[in-house]
Structure formats: C-alpha cells, structure tokens
C-alpha cells in the first residue's frame, strides 16, 4: 500500500496509543486524538496558514508527504499514517513511548540534502488484515486496563471504608463484604478477558513481525516491554 504520512508538530501530547499488555505504544494508524485549546490562546498557533492548519488539533502545524509502494498501480487510496513531534514550551516533555512502525519517521541518514524516498514493500490484503487485528486488539487491551484500574481503585476504597467502619469481617451479609466480593469477581473477569485478547494480539504480532504471512513486511515498535503495572495487590482485607 502507498502511504500518506502526516506529521503533527504540536504542544499537547495527543498521541493515540494501543497497549500490548505490558505498556503503551503510539499508534500512527489511528485517527488523531483531540488535544487542548492551547492554539486558541497562543499567537503562533492562531496564525498558522490554512494549508498547514491541523483539522484535529488547535496547537498543531501539519505537513504531509507521500510514500509510494512497489506496486503503486494496484493502490486505490493511500493509507494515512500519523507522526507526532512535540513543539512549544521548553522543559515540557512527553512520555517516552515506542512507536508502532517507525519506518516512516525519517529519510535514510546518508541522503541528507536530497533524500531518496524508498518505496514501501508490497503489503498483501492478508497482511493488512493481520495489522488491523493487531491494532484493534491493542485498543481493547488499552480499554480493559483502564477499566481494571478503576476497579482496583474501587476495591482499595471499599477495603479502607470497611476497615474504618468495623475492621476486617467476613460476614456474608455485610454490605461492604458483598460489594468487595462483586468487585473482586469483576476484576477476575477483566483479567480473563485481557488474557484472551493478549493471545489474539500475540498471534497478530507474529503474523506482521516475523514473516507469518507472505506479501508483508516486519513492523517495528513491538519489541517486548517490561510490565507497566507489575503489581496489582490491593492490600486491605
């Protein structure tokens, strides 16, 4: 597939992410996330020419380049891929995150003045579908982790409320014991759901990264990460 590479130079960290179960990864294939209204308060961003004004962000200058593929005559419409660069106030840093498929981030180092745009290798429909499965699974894992974090916070809050009210008890008729039991069950269901979708993510990752499909290329940015939340112990009673 041919690619339309859209580079966003913006102040807010509005990078869309997926999660592989171990940490977040910037997803350049996703539609841009909304950002704050810094642009409306900043003279520089408010005076951006219309040709360079980003339709998704108020504090953003956008540029576009084209990356043809090796079988350009077969492509109906280029795939949009988004890159994100931080500009604005010095000293404000974004979280360091791996980027899914950083193939498009820069021209070859030995082509500084007049970079030759290398064509993108051919991508079969089966490979594109596997990549779609991977990004969709990563979005589900991301959302499940957010819900799990809220449930963990609720368990922690109810546990301390239980202790404050009458210490640890195990009476089944205690309203707080019932609520804690329900939340623990919900947490276990979420863990099972996440384990299942992580298996789907791992299979799709093998397909797009390790030559599991013909007519594809290796996707970078999916190296194994360390757990972003190694402990889920709740404490309390």
Helices and strands in order:
Elements: E1 3-10, E2 17-19, E3 24-26, H1 38-41, H2 43-46, E4 60-67, E5 79-86, H3 125-166, H4 175-209
Helix pairs in contact: 3-4
Characteristic terms for this protein:
single chain, 237 residues, alpha+beta, 2 domains, three-stranded mixed beta sheet, two-stranded antiparallel ribbon, 4 helices, 13% strand, disordered C terminus
Order of helices and strands: EEEHHEEHH
Major pleated sheet: 3 strands, mixed
Instruction: Specify the number of helices.
Output: 4
The neighbouring-strand order within the major sheet is 4-1-5
Describe this structure in words.
36% of the residues lie in helices and 13% in strands. It has 237 residues and is of the alpha+beta class. It folds into 2 domains: 3-104, no CATH class; 125-209. The strands form 2 sheets. Strands 4-1-5 form a 3-stranded mixed β-sheet, with no helix packed on it. The protein has a two-stranded antiparallel sheet with strand order 2-3. Helix 3 runs antiparallel to helix 4. The longest helix is centred in the middle third of the chain and has 42 residues, at 125-166.
Concise summary:
By secondary structure, the chain is an alpha+beta fold. Helix content is 36%, strand content 13%.
């Amino acid at each position: 597939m041919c690619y339309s590479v859209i580079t966003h130079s913006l102040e807010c960290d509005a990078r869309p992410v997926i999660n592989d179960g171990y940490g977040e990864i910037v997803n350049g294939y996703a539609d841009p996330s909304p950002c704050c209204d810094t642009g409306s308060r900043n003279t520089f961003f408010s005076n951006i020419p219309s040709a360079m004004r980003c339709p998704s962000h108020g504090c953003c200058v956008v540029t576009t380049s084209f990356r043809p593929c090796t079988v350009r005559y077969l492509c109906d419409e280029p795939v949009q891929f988004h890159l994100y660069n931080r500009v604005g106030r010095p000293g404000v840093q974004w979280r360091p995150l791996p980027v899914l498929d950083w193939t498009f981030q820069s021209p070859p180092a030995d082509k500084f003045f007049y970079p030759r745009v290398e064509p993108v290798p051919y991508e079969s429909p089966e490979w594109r579908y596997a990549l779609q499965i991977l990004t969709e699974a990563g979005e589900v894992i991301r959302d499940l982790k957010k819900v799990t974090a809220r449930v963990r916070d609720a368990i922690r809050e109810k546990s301390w409320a239980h202790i404050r009210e009458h210490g640890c008890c195990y009476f089944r008729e205690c309203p707080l014991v019932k609520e804690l039991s329900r939340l623990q069950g919900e947490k276990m269901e979420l863990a099972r759901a996440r384990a299942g979708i992580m298996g789907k993510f791992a299979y799709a990752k093998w397909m797009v990264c390790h030559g599991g499909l013909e007519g594809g290329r290796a996707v970078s940015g999916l190296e194994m990460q360390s757990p972003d939340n190694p402990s889920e112990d709740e404490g309390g009673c």
